[in-house]
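Run folding on both entries below.
>entry_1
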Amino acid sequence: MNATNVAAIAAWSYGIAVIGYFAFAVRMILGWGGGIRASLLLASMLATLLWAAASTAFAVRLFPEAWLAANVFDALRYGLWFVFLDALLQARRQQNGLLGAKRLIPRWAIALAIIGLVASLVISDGSPLAQVLAADSGRFEFGLRLGLSIFALTLVEQLIRWTHPEGRWSIKPLCVALIGIFGFDLFLNADAMLFGRIDVDMWVARGVANALVIPFIAVATARNTGWTVEMHLSREAVFHSTALVVSGAFLLTIAAAGYYVRYVGGDWGRAFQIELLFGALLLIILVASSGRFRSKLRVFVSKHFFSYRYDYREEWLRFTRTLSTESALQGVHERAIMAVANLVESPAGILWLEKDGRGFMSAARWNLPQVNAIEPLDGSLPRFLERTGWVVDVKEFALARERYPDLTLPAWLSSVPNAWLIVPLISGSNLLGFVVLDTPRTAVDVNWEVRDMLKTASRQAASYLGQIHATEALLEARKFEAFNRMSAFVVHDLKNLVAQLSLMLRNAERHRTNPEFQRDMLFTVENVVERMHKLMLQLHTGTTPLENPRPVDLGPVVQRICAAKSSNERTIEVAVSSGIVTFAHEDRLEYVIGHLLQNAIDATVGGGSISVRLYRDAGFAVVEVADTGVGMSPDFLRERLFKPFETTKPAGMGIGVYESMQYVNGLGGQLLIDSTLSKGTRVRVLLPIADSAAAAATPMREVA
């Protein structure tokens, strides 16, 4: 390999280190919080960045000045790492109460290290391309660098030794990174000292090697808040990075095995290599799609890279997303099971809810068979869950029942395969139900953090399910309310039909031989039968008429109603303009006008006059019914008249005016009522005129 190729590869290697350390240094500056240790760590990162940049420049241009700058910054970063490690060791002395004792690293050792750093710069003349350029370098320089690497590893060993076992978790990633940096340099300098020159391949790989330790330093920075650098690592990023490293290691292993098989297998070597690679590809696909593998990897990352198992923000977002996302495949109950189960890597579960006071029954299941059993409301399990709110570990209960006093697990639980946890769903102080979870895909330690997370999440799920059930109950109540209101309307119409039939029967004795009365009686019976058929249809379809509105000539309708309501005892004054047509349902419109006229008749029982007029006004057809009867008070007119079930008549139901107003408004019209107590009432029905194209768009106003 010639010098040009080596230089190109080296430029890429150290360029990767430049990018990595630059990004990490920027992230540290953005999360800067001050402090001596944070300052030393940032300075070490910047010195390493400058060393990598100088090495890149040397690889690109081969300037001796760049090589000298690289050596200077290399010595500087070593010195900064020494000072940083010493600061950490002094902090460990304070924690262990050794302030009055000797220093963990003698001052003479630190002085020798400083002398070694300076001496390595003074005598530095060895080039990493010495082998290619046929240049040789002395061994003394490499011996000094070898000693500095050993001193650095000694500092790391002292840091691990003097850190309390419970606190080693926080510095373990940093120690791994520094062992990687100084250990690599140890082998590089040992090889150079042995052969009198730097190994080109090792020097080229040094840039990438230093870049690979950045994630470990980042994890250590996130774990040590005392370094006062605000650093947050995404669990997803660590998870995917770990998965990438595992995949890379697997592929390297397969590549090595394939290389061995190809060159040892003889004539069949290449075929064996292809078969091995194909099998490895299938294995990668299987592992990548395995939920159990992902669960194990997620647990491994949480246990070894973070102080807490959960990234609470991400877990809560995933929980609420699972719980609230509408799905055609899973209902709200199945989603509640999934949301709780995903917190502990459980692949299945059953939801039990209280049903109409009969007990707790299986309401939904996810990846488990149906369990047909009823848990009594006063059973041992519901009473224990409601009283304590604890998460019951079935396996722990089997081993140590004394931890769950006064609890007896139901017999039906044995029919749930691999039952693991019983999570109560408590809203307020009431037990809505519970979730039985299946054994997780990977081993999960049910510690205080897992239990607290399940309790909090289950309360949220219980609140959500309670809200859903309350909404369903409200909708059901509204359906009954609508049905009852419709029934009241139907009863009101039946009352009017019964009144017509009763009047006909009272007159039948006197006029049964009168042919004209017989014709009217047949017409009345036919009309009643037709109205009753329509009422029966309304019971099935609601109060809205089935047919679309049609043109209705109002003149004949008004005259027919007035003729039917007139009698020898009561005279109705009628004034009808001809040719006024509106879009409506003739039978419903006849009912509305007839009801208003009947109200006028009832209001003038003690005496008074009644008039009915039909005329045009401002694009509307106006049917006016006026009387000089008892009238209505302003309070009743304002507060009660247009409300259902409000009436002033002893035998009234208070539905007619409300139903009339609803129908007229639905046609685009308006019902206006003026009344004065003891003086009378005027009712006006305003309907859009059918022959006016602009009638529907004309704003309604009160007509004088």
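>entry_2
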Amino acid sequence: MLCCAGSLWAQPKPQQWQMVTQPSYHEMLKGFATPPNQYAQTLTWGLEGPIGRDNISRDLDEMYKQGIRAVSIEGGYGMPEPYLSPGYFENVKIIVEELKKRNMHLWIIDEGKYPSGFAGGLISQKSPELRMQGIVVSKRLRTEDNQPLSIDLPKQTLSAVAVNTSTQENKVLDISSGKLNWPATPGTWQITVVDHRFKTSVTRAANNPTHGKDTVNSLIDYLDPAATRKFMEYTHEQYKKYIGAEFGKTVLGFRGDEPEYGFTPWTPELLKIFKEKKQYDITPYLASFFIQQPTEEQKMAKADFFDVWSDLFRDNFFKVQADWCRANGLEYMVHIDREDMLMQLVRSEGDYFKDMRYVQVPGVDAIWHQIWYDNVADFPKLASSAAHMYGRPRALSESFAAYRPAPTVADARWVVNEEMVRGINLFEYMFWSSSANRKEGAPASQRGYLHDTAFVKLSAYSNRASWLLANGIPAARVGLYCPTEAMWTGNKMADSTLRVIGKQLLEHQVDFDYVDNQGLASDFRLQKGSFTNLSGQKYTAIIVPSANVLSADMIARLKTFATGGGKVIFAGEVPGKMTYPNFLHATDLPKQPWVTYADWTNLTSDFFAQLPHDVILNKTAPGVKYLHREWKNADLYFFFNEGKEAQDLQVTLNGSGSVTFWDAETGTTQAANGANQKGNQTQLPLQLKGYETRFVIIQH
């Protein structure tokens, strides 16, 4: 029986590494040189070839020498004992035994390759009724001037719409009789008919002899909790049989990878659930999702549809797994797809923050050149913001799998720092292939940056730095609203202005979290001009980029926030609609007197002066970024100079007391010279070489 939250079984008490903590200065100092291995970075270990105890031990010894203290196993190609077979699990048991001997830890990638959710092909083979489904175009028919049409439709047909090819006018067709009847009508029209059917996004499977991406092994219906439980019966529950005694000890959790829809989702209960949530029938609108120029009404209906299916994705896929992991003393960490391209993400994933709402370790990936010296990117803040908003200490980046050219250790360090200063504090370095599949005599220099002797220092550095950044309470006071709801309506400016405003904030040393409708409308505690998230972090300013529509609940709470002393700034297109009772029937939203307005194309000094600052530089330095966390009796500041030019700065920091620099590479500390106290602030000189980082700790 699959045990989830809500079971009568007692829930394991969370361990320190699983909780947001606020330790003291001396507690952090005591652990700094050798942080607990549960906080260690991990690497993807591909189980390929004839796996056995000898090559398992050899690989782990090599990894340990490189500073690695945790691994993420992925079932791979060429194993004599196929993925998810009894022999495979016996090898996993050996891995856990060998890890335990070395005080190392294990994350389990929940699929043999990717994306998560096909159980190595067992869903298609044993549970085909639970396969993924979608809404697809079944017919496109063309009629000329006054040409009538009448055809019988199969029972799975959902909707039809006719579009005039000259004017783009469209007409929703009534097909409730099971027939499509098109009367003689002037003009040329294209009729689009849609139905639902079994359909899957592509998968790459360890058990697929082609080693390619195809649709042979279907994913589950992510919107059906029974399908998710069946997937876990084939995977998670089998691991539990073999290594469950080490759950929460040697085994830290499961890691998911890129669950996504490459098309419009469907699940058998969707129409019923939609009507319960939105109080109207979505069926007539479904075909309009597949035409180029839908009406505003049809765009709003599509937004309602995305709102509903993203709720189902959150509750019936991600939450089911998170609940199971929590009930078994584990963490569920996962990243989805296209985190660096939000307009594409909302089509394939629904809503990043809904997906991550119950996930213990939210994630992104930077596996190709989404982040590089010439491509500074802020999307890692999606994962750290989700962690901050919803009370999680860790945020994941799956990193470097497909960088071309492959990174050197110096390159990897720069990318790691770029992400850490945006809140990432758990890296899965990629990729370590099992020595069972390695050509004899292949030198380390041909096996990539993970095998370079210089990686030992990066490993030590990232382990200590990430431990520092996983403790304490995040201290950013600005929330930048992520307008997913506007993106569902096709509003590209919502995405563009979000990126520009976020970039400008960081270049002016104003740290922020992305915040979402869930938090602002209901989940955050609202009192006296502040929103407090589930980490205990307080936002005193909320910035809304371009958005044509906001939820009524969010508007009501923003008004209370503003009238209590909080700052609300609309910095783009002013929302003209309020989703009450739903998107389709959204009501007009007049300008609000409690809102301050700004122009995202010209964010002036007056704009930045309205915002809370915990770091002030004596000169402009857009390449210097920082992160601030609060301990019980100290403030941690992490600085990174993203540019190659050295920076000689005077900085003013919130918090007063004795100041030390902590070196995450060596595990040593040094008193800072020249620091002066002024009220509750500290002023000090800060020199940063090109690409250099610095941890500044102020002990109260």
